[in-house]
Amino acid sequence: LVLENDLHDALDNEELYLEYQPQINLQSGEIKSVEALIRWQHPKKGWISPGVFIPIAEESGLIIPIGQWVLETACRQVKQWEAAGLPPMKVAVNLSLGQLFQQNLVEMIQQVLDKTQLDAQFLQLEITESMTINSNHMTTILLQLKGLGVTIAVDDFGTGYSSLSYLKDFPIDCLKIDRSFVQKIHAESTDKALVDMILSMAKHLQLKVVAEGIEEIDQLSYLVNSKCDAVQGFLFSKPIQPEILQESYKSLH
Ligand code: G
Ligand code: G
Ligand code: MN
Ligand code: NA
Question: All domains of the chain, ordered by start, with CATH?
């Protein structure tokens, strides 16, 4: 409860900030997308993990104003990078279940796009498989979001214990293979078979695939050979502050 009160103030006091983790396109080798990840620097308690405070935000309803702040900050950042001379980049933003039941979610996102002047094609929304259970509502809301021109990714794919039937009902663009599978890609493992299966299914359904949690060069080689679209992981970069991303980009070009 103390932390909930603190979280309430955190927005006003600018204790929340976003880091960005690059996704490397395996065809071009370029960073075409980044995932925005929220961070909290508490004035007394120091750094608090989103694994701790996101559940508190979800239970208290604070996820609604926080989620809006994340969307606006991420969209504005993409425009700032563009103004600084970086090539166009798509930003992926995580949504919580509560946001998908927020009355004005679609209007709010449209307003954020208008206000920041970001073209909708540069915004990707990440949902998780477990959110697909309430399928009628979800189909409706995802279709409305797609109507804005944004794309939809399924995060942590393969861990949600969900029926796969939602893949034909929902307007999904991208699957993000959970890092627990990626990290165990080695010869003849069951996880390798699962990664192969996801890649082949995605190809048939014309979905993009991002593999998460790449830490080793062998994992990368396997995914390159398997024609995975993009990778995200510590092998390339941990989540970093936007200024650092901008500087390292400039020093490479
Ligand atoms: O960055 P890290 O691995 O610590 O993230 C922990 C969890 O917090 C992840 O599951 C991630 O999806 C979630 N998360 C990070 N940023 C956001 C955000 O802006 N909104 C929501 N809803 N979840 C987030
Ligand atoms: O649940 P979600 O996929 O949104 O969580 C993203 C988080 O995963 C990032 O915030 C980051 O902390 C973590 N992550 C990203 N890359 C790696 C990686 O290569 N290894 C591990 N262990 N975690 C990673
Ligand atoms: Mn994510
Ligand atoms: Na994930």
Answer: 21-37+61-252 (3.20.20.450)
